[in-house]
Amino acid sequence: MKNFLFAVFLLTFSIGSMAQITVADPWVRGMVSGQKSTGAFMQLNSAEDTRLVDASSPDFVVEIHEMSMHGDVMRMKQIDGIDLPAGKTVELKPGSYHLMFIDVKRQLKEGDMVPLTLRFENAQQVSQTVKVNVPVKALNSTGPAMSEKHQHNH
């Protein structure tokens, strides 16, 4: 009975410590025929210190990436996560943090929707997932239009 009560306490503590995470303005850059990769962008906000630690889609490999300038050279590298300080919006955008879709088998075109699962961990390593259907924008798009804002709260 003691072990059961302890398990119930742990479950309650874990559920109670989940952060309110907001995903706003998600979008994926469209592709040209034969292209094998593209990027996804969005704004992330958490009520408590949290970290984006993984992203996945049933259609292809997803990696968390960072772009940065080194002199006149732009470099992109895979990173193990993105910190989300409590109450501060972190923007995944072209030329900065983004999600990289790799080994894409079909051309993603404007109007398509891409299922995406984001996994976050807080300081106590409690994991939370957020599922988002992300619209594909035109290849030359710089993001969603102001009238097309999408927001997902979890």
Description:
By secondary structure, this protein is mostly beta strands. It has a single domain, classed as PCu(A)C copper chaperone (Immunoglobulin-like, Sandwich), CATH 2.60.40.1890. The protein has 1 helix and 11 strands. Strands 1, 2, 3, 4, 5, 6, 7, 8, 9, 10 and 11 form an 11-stranded mixed sheet that branches. A hairpin with a 4-residue loop joins strand 9 and strand 10. It starts with a helix and ends with a strand. Residues 1-17 and 146-151 have low confidence and may be disordered.
Keywords:
154 residues, mainly beta, Immunoglobulin-like, 11-stranded mixed β-sheet, 1 helix, 10% helix, disordered N terminus
Quick overview of this protein structure:
With 154 residues, the protein is mainly beta. Helices cover 10% and strands 51% of the residues. It has one domain: PCu(A)C copper chaperone (Immunoglobulin-like), CATH 2.60.40.
- Secondary structure class reads mainly beta
Number of helices: 1
Largest sheet: 11 strands, mixed
| CATH classification class | Mainly Beta
Number of domains: 1
Percent of residues in β-strands: over 45%
Q: What does the overall shape look like? A: globular
The CATH level-2 architecture is identified as Sandwich
Average pLDDT = 84
N-to-C SSE string, H for helix and E for strand:
HEEEEEEEEEEE
The number of strands is: 11
The N- and C-terminal alpha carbons lie at a distance of: 33 Å
Q: Roughly what percent helix?
A: under 10%
* CATH domain topology: Immunoglobulin-like
Keywords: Signal
Protein name: Transporter
Pfam family, one: PCuAC
Organism: Oxalicibacterium flavum
